[in-house]
Every structure is written in structure tokens, then in C-alpha cells.
Amino acid sequence: MTHQLNPVAQQRKLRAELRRAREHAGLTQKEVADLLEWSASKIIRIETGAVGIGITDLKALLGQYKVTDAKKTNELLDMARSSKKSSWWDKYKNHLKPDFIQFLGFQESASLVRQFQFLFIPGLLQTREYAEAMFDSYETDPEVTQSRVEVRMQRQHLLTRENGPRFSFVLDESTLRRQIGGATVMREQLLHLKEVSRYPSVDIHVLPFSIGVRPGMENSFSVLEFLPDDYENTDYVVQIEQATRDILLENEPQTASQYVEYFVTLEGLSIAGDQFDATIDRLIAELPT
């Protein structure tokens, strides 16, 4: 991918590089903390992304890890500086959960996004009216609703961005039948799905009721895949949606592999192409006029 990594992705790449440098130096987190007279928890927080890292602390770590190559040092310092820059979503961050902000950054830097959704139309595929109706159903603060809708609309630039991610969506049939905002809103939403399904970077599949229940359908989930140039040894991020708090998993290759397998299985059981269009047309015809 040729686009520049955003600040969230830069921080993720930087901490992966720091873990590798520490391991290459043969040091444990506690040994580094003792050498620098820091707490062990500070090293842990830096490496897990719980806190950012300043230039002074970064130089101290690189000294302990014996990173002396000027080009490599400057590259890591540039990552640290870039991780402090602003992103388009910063003006909405008071109304967004920290894990979701991380997810936004990761999604923008992914090469492939796989998403299974069994409750709602995915946010990347929603019309403004559908998104407003959905947030209005459980959010009482109009300002929060408006902010979240705007974020949802701005995220959709990824679907058509040059050198952006590829997207593969598997939608449970219930997402198409559950009426959000009434018949008029649903009609426009279903037509929008047909339109987006023709984008070069987007594949949309529908999982019909007839397939029953299969492994992986317990929760909606996303699997983000990264090119090796972006993340040398950390290839996936998994987001599992839950009622109270979504789970964001990094550096868990076995879990990622399991969810990729779930997705591929569900995708293989789904309908797409002309069958997808026919399903959308039939559902539109069933809507009350």
C-alpha cells in the first residue's frame, strides 16, 4: 500500500518495532525498566499502546537496545513524531470510545477488511438516514448522535479511496429484513447496498436464513489484514462486537486465524452477484408502500 500510515497505525508499528528491538537485545521488560530506573509497568504500557512515547524516552530505549544505525533511528523517531499528529476523527473523539478510535486508525491502514454482521447493516454501508435512525433508537443526546453519524459518513471514503483497503462483507439475512427508520429509509438503504456492491473494492454477500446456525455467528466481527510492509510480523487485528464494549485483539495469531476461518466458511455459504441483486429486489418489493 502506498498511502501514508495514520497516527494510530504509526504508533502500532512503532511499538512493534520496539518490542522486536528489545527482544533482539536479549532484554526483558523488567531488565529495561531497571536499567532506565523506570517502573516495569511503564515499559508494558508503551509496548501495549496504553500510552504513547515521547522522543526523549524513545532515545533512551534505543540506547539500551543498542540501535545505532542512523537511518533506523531516524525512521523510529519519525514514527514517534507522526504518531502525535492529528487525524480527521480527532474533532469527534469526545463522543467516541478509545477502542473505536484505535479501530478507525487500523481500518484506514489495512489492506483487506472482512466483516460479518448479523444485527445491523455495517456502518461503512449505511445511508445517512439509516444511521440517524439507528443512533436515535438508543442515543438520547442529539450532539452525540450527530457526531457519530458524521464519523460514519466520513469513514465511507475508504470504499473508494485510491490504494485503499479491499472490503468483503457477509450480512446475515436478518440485517436486510430488520426495518430501521421505516419502509422509506429501508428502501433507500437496500438500493444503496446494490450500488455499493458494484464498487471495485467491495464484495457484499448475504447469508440466507436457510443455512441455519454455523460457528462464528455468535457475534458480529471484523478481521483487518495488513501487508507485510506495514506490519512485519503482526498481520491481523480482530474486532468482536458486544453489547456493552467491543473487543479489539492484536498480536493474537491463533484467534485471528480462527476468525478468518469463520469468515471464509460463512462467505462460502452466502449468496452474491446476481443472486444478491435478486434478493435485494425481492426485499424491496416486500416493503410496505
Automatic annotation (TrEMBL):
InterPro entries: Cro/C1-type_HTH, DUF5753, Lambda_DNA-bd_dom_sf. This is Helix-turn-helix protein. It comes from Umezawaea tangerina. SMART domains: HTH_XRE (SM00530). It comes from the Bacteria. CDD domains: HTH_XRE (cd00093). GO terms for molecular function: DNA binding. Residues 18-76 form the HTH cro/C1-type domain. PROSITE patterns: HTH_CROC1 (PS50943).
